[in-house]
Amino acid sequence: MQTDERLPQLTAVEKPRWYRDVRVLRVIIQVVIVGGVVAIAAFFIGNMIANMQRLGISLGLDYLTQPAEFTIPGSDFERTGTRLEAVLVGVGNTFRIAIAGIFFATILGVLLGIARLSKNWLVSTGARLYVEFFRNIPVLVIIIFAYLVVFLEPRIFPRFENAREIGPFIIYVRGVFFPWYESQANFFPWVVIMLAGVVAGVFVSRWRERVSEKTGASALSLLWGLGTFLAFAVIGFFALGGPASLTIPGFEGQVVVGGIRVSPEYAALLISLVIYTASHIAEITRGSIQAVSKGQQEAATALALSSAQRIRYVILPQAFRVAIPPLANQYLNLTKNSSLAVAIAYYEVTKVTTDIIGNGGPAPQSFLVLMIIYLIISLIIAALSNVVNRRLALVER
Amino acid sequence: MTHEDLAAGAVVAGGTGEPMIICEGVEKWFDDFQALKGIDLVVGTQEVVVVIGPSGSGKSTLIRCINRLEEHDRGRIIVDGVEMGDDIRNIQEIRREVGMVFQQFNLFPHLTVLDNVTLAVRRVRKKPKAEADELAMEMLTRVQIPEQAAKYPGQLSGGQQQRVAIARALAMQPKVMLFDEPTSALDPEMIKEVLDVMKELAVSGMTMIVVTHEMGFAKEVADRVMFMADGEVVEVGTPQHFFESPEEDRTKLFLTQIL
Amino acid sequence: MTTTAKPPVRTTGPLKWLNDNVFRTWWDGIVTVVAGGLLLWLLGSFLSWVFTSAEWDIVRVNLVTFMVGRFPREELWRVGVALLILAFAGGLLLGMSLRLKPRVTALEALRTFAVRAWPVAILVVLLLILASSLSALVLVAGATLAFIIGRGGGYRLPQSRTRLGMVVGLLSPFAFVAVIAGFGGVGWNLWGGLLLTMLLAVGGIALSFPFGVMLALGRRSTLPAARWLSITYIEVIRGVPLITLLFMGFVMLTLFLPAGVSAPSLVIRGIVVLTIFTAAYVAEIVRGGLQSVPNGQVEAAHALGMSPIQTTFNIVLPQALTAVIPALVGQFISLFKDTSLVAIVGLLELLGVAQAITQQPAFAGQGLLLETLLFASLIFWVGSFTMSRESQRLEKRLGVGER
Known about the structure:
By secondary structure, chain B is an alpha/beta fold. Helix content of chain B is 39%, strand content 24%. Chain B has ten helices and ten strands. In chain B, a hairpin with a 2-residue loop joins β1 (19-30) and β2 (33-44). The interface between A and C is large, with 55 and 54 residues.
């Protein structure tokens, strides 16, 4: 083959100069960034360690095994318990608030969201007023209000001498006392029977679903399942000769005996968080229902599905999917907001931590532990939300 | 025919001659805008009526009044002898017997194709699951996509989705099928598959009202073609009459614009 | 046959409305009666309490404290002047934004104001009544006048001077701070009440903004180091409650400083912590905006020869940020409410004042926290509600969001 003289000679590809080579630059920039961050961190942490040594504050996590020097009201925790145990009690209290709060806030919020969409003007406007009011004030204000104004108000929660009795409830400064159960003989077997009742109830509901598929009749599976569970519970109760009795709070000298106590701090925090979070959940519910396109509703209507059937089979499943990420976000917010308990001395984990520090514990480690605990909780909620999301995701191409 | 007024603007019923849908003086306002200005129409059993017209002419509004997706303000609508009014029983009864196919398909994205088709059959017609499934598969076979039964709508093409929508409406075994611009949201290459299904449906004897821009379909399949503009029926006639010798000026103008 | 008939005479009027909205079915009727009774009872008891048994003296006497905390009273004129500057600048920006619209009469402008800002108007009137002082009236009148003048000026501003107007508008917060704190004025440590709340909120969002944008860009970077550092920061900060960060900042700050360096004031600590906190949330919002910019934009910019940095700042960021303006406003509103948490660490912003004044000798032990909290809530509510309504309007106008 003849070479064409006019074609230029191609030179080999030159390696670029190192200071212009994109790959080298990337590495250099990253080294600079990491180096900078590490240097700044080292500066501050170095200072911290130096100062701690100077002030005689212990480094490391031994402080956790030392006695806490404070008590936690409402639990059995003693001054001599270790700080680690105190933290665990705090975490337990955080969970108590978070789970109860999430449960009630969701119920209230969803009801309010549906009320917002009601055709009854009074109901929808009432819900709207609620939402617009509580969404726009800081949650801390609600908490302080609930605690200091309601629960510490002597006219509502009087001192022991003037304790109020409303039916079976007793209310005074130390909280609200409810009738509660007290386990007698054979309590544990009864619990087992009730658990069996739950399992049986699930089986019965499934069975009813299958029957409904075969015959086309309504399943009423929820009713049947619930009925089965109740049957187990009631029959078991009588068969075992009353494994639990009702205790009604009553006065004995200077104390209230019987029933169960809900402390003012817990009640105030729970109610505030529920009221506040429910207003956000209401908006999420409303938004997600409205997000289901009108065409879906029309198709369901054209198929002669009744209003209830439309909601149950077409609108709610789709609305629920849309609502999960913002709902998970609200649940996380509620859990984080529970830390505001420091303002009213409810001993969840943040309050416990501040007390540890106030009683001689080292601040950096205590806060580190606190942050890790909250990060774990955040991770749990995020992971759960992801799992639910993935299982419910609409299948696309 | 039931009314002198009907005779004036009304139309000769095609099909078997037994009236299936009667619209008498139907008027509809949206606030101050009058969308339907007194529509008289009689659709006979097994008749195929194709409704054409510019946008805003009220054609969609009219068929949406027939299954109460819109409420008409004046006039009467009677479907298979049942009068459409505020009586919820009548409304539900009519909706069971009238199937609708939408421009945007409106399949339920969280249910499989099979469940989409059987949902109303099981919950409204109260059929057992096995029977509903069988009926659904029959319908899916009729629209030529039985193999997609386990898929979700998001996994199907537009043409396939619309055919599922047709199967869903057919599974209720309606007496009338309403089509609201069924091919307008489809890519061109998928229009034919849907039109083929609709043609088969017409040939098999279903009473149909089809709002569409597909003139080929109208010429081939329609018993009557109705031209609406500004909320009124301008002209009605057989496809032959319509496309070859339209009478009204507005009709002629519209036909020149689209043909 | 093209006659346009009139719609059929429908029964309208109050009876029909009642029938449609409230008494549709008999069940509906019962719900209405019950709900209506409940609402009336609640409203009635609340109003009767407000006007009869509540004691508002504590609020009246401490009105200035609510507004500015322990600010030295003889320097209050500075706050007045600063407010006038802000009012003028606000009017200026508003007027400039209305330039493309036709002129409206004073009456129409008033009507728009009444519809959109009625909570603010009612609050201002309430404050004036409580204050019952001439200086307050002069201040409000002066601010309104400054606003109107600014609006008129902004409206008439020629397009060529737009940049000048924007600069003046955006510099006004700095002027605000300078007038109060500079020129031998009052340092931040003495700011309190609503003034401090605004300083914390505005300072927090302003400082966190560049930081948050950087984090968002880092999160999307292809450099692993930048990405991981950003992710770690964002996830850690978002995973912990604000109060823990505040405690850490306030309790541990001295530990982080070399021995001998004096700790910064409480207010600065507050702003720093709020900035650190908000930056993580701003980062997530901006990240959403960045994701919404189509890839084609970047490709086109690169094809034109623009460097990555040029692309980011000239093409991607403007579009991303415009898309998330409503969400950013929402974050500001959250921050506005979250400033109340600094009351726990001892700063006397609005909530702190509400709690502190109940300990004054004249009012201690009278259980007046209810009144002061309600007053503080009112101010929070008016601010938050008005801002979120405006944000919704803005969202509709920008056409941003789903569908």
